[in-house]
């Protein structure tokens, strides 16, 4: 997969609301197998689509891409020797926003790979036909959100997913039936535009009908920040403010859950080559060397030989596995 195929795959993932990273080779020095402009997609679960480099580059790019997805921050990855990027010495530090990974095995090539996160935009479902509902939908679209504005009679549980933000603004027109269908969708956020008293009556009715009590407890009534008596435009702003707050909190929670120290995040069947920094699979056929009670794994014979010639030079980097 390359060229337009990569972009089409990215569009498909975005439509499905799946996070991924887009990696692009912005510079190369031969004989690297990548070409300038080569692209690849890396999904959150570690699938790669496209071409970004050979056996040394690909595992490193995949590892860094998953960290980019978790953090939501792009980075420029420098793969090669320090002197190939204008840095002197083994311990050279790259500027903020860049990650330097020394790769010295198999070839003298070098790469600069820009990895950017592609995170799904919020999906807002506004149910209702009032001026407030229309204003809320318009404001959310201005933020670049995916927005569906639908009448209560047309809404079904299939119109929302677990990542959707749903606002029921039917304002007395069959609130109970619409909210019951919205609860069944189990969205990330569900708010009802009503007074507290009216909302309590609606929730009580649904509880008597056997609706999931945990889901009912998550319904925001009234939806939005409490501004007292305001215009419908201000109510829309108050609701959108709460939605932005909820979305930001959800993103931070997800990032915190996914972002762990590299030693903890790495699967038990993988290790880091202490010479070149690439990720290698651990198996019976893996090249490895025992040194001072530790086992070190290597991508190939070149890195293993370099380590065995001077193990102390690589152990001090604290890249032991």
Outline of the structure:
The protein is an alpha/beta fold and 321 residues long. The chain is 35% helix and 23% strand. It has three domains: 15-120, no CATH class; 123-257, NAD(P)-binding Rossmann-like Domain (Rossmann fold); 260-321, no CATH class.
Describe the 3D structure:
The protein is α/β, with parallel strands linked by helices and 321 residues long. It has 3 domains: 15-120, no CATH class; 123-257, NAD(P)-binding Rossmann-like Domain (Rossmann fold), CATH 3.40.50.720; 260-321, no CATH class. Helix content is 35%, strand content 23%. The chain is built from 10 helices and 15 strands. Strands 3-2-1-6-4-5 form a 6-stranded mixed sheet, with helices on both faces. Strands 8-7-9-10-11 form a 5-stranded parallel sheet, sandwiched between helices. Strand 2 and strand 3 form a beta hairpin. Helix 2 runs antiparallel to helix 7, helix 3 (131-142) packs across helix 7 (232-258) and helix 4 (175-184) packs across helix 5 (196-208). The model is unreliable at 255-267 (pLDDT under 50).
């Amino acid at each position: 997969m390359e060229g337009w195929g990569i972009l089409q795959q990215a569009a498909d993932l975005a439509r499905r609301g799946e996070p991924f990273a887009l990696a692009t080779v912005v510079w190369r020095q031969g004989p690297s197998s990548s070409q300038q402009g080569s692209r690849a997609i890396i999904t959150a679960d570690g699938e790669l689509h496209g071409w970004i480099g050979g056996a040394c580059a690909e595992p490193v790019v995949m590892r860094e891409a998953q960290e980019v997805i978790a953090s939501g921050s792009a980075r420029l990855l420098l793969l090669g020797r320090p002197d190939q990027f204008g840095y002197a010495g083994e311990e050279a530090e790259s500027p903020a926003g860049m990650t330097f990974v020394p790769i010295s095995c198999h070839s003298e090539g070098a790469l600069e790979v820009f990895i950017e996160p592609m995170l799904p935009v919020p999906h807002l479902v506004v149910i209702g036909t009032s001026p407030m509902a229309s204003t809320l939908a318009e404001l959310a679209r201005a933020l670049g959100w995916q927005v569906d504005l639908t009448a209560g009679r047309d809404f079904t549980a299939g119109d929302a997913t677990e990542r959707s933000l749903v606002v029921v603004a039917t304002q007395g027109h069959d609130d109970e039936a619409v909210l019951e269908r919205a609860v069944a969708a189990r969205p990330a956020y569900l708010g009802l535009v009503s007074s507290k008293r009216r909302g309590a009556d609606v929730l009580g009715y649904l509880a008597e009908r056997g609706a999931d009590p945990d889901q009912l407890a998550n319904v925001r009534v009234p939806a939005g920040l409490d501004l007292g008596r305001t215009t419908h435009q201000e109510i829309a702003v108050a609701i959108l403010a709460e939605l932005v707050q909820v979305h930001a909190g959800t993103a931070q929670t997800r990032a915190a859950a996914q972002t762990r120290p590299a030693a903890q995040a790495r699967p038990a069947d993988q290790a880091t080559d202490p010479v070149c920094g690439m990720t290698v699979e651990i198996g019976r056929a893996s090249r490895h060397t025992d040194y001072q009670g530790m086992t070190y794994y290597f991508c190939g014979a070149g890195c293993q030989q370099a380590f065995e010639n001077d193990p102390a030079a690589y152990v001090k980097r604290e890249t032991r596995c």
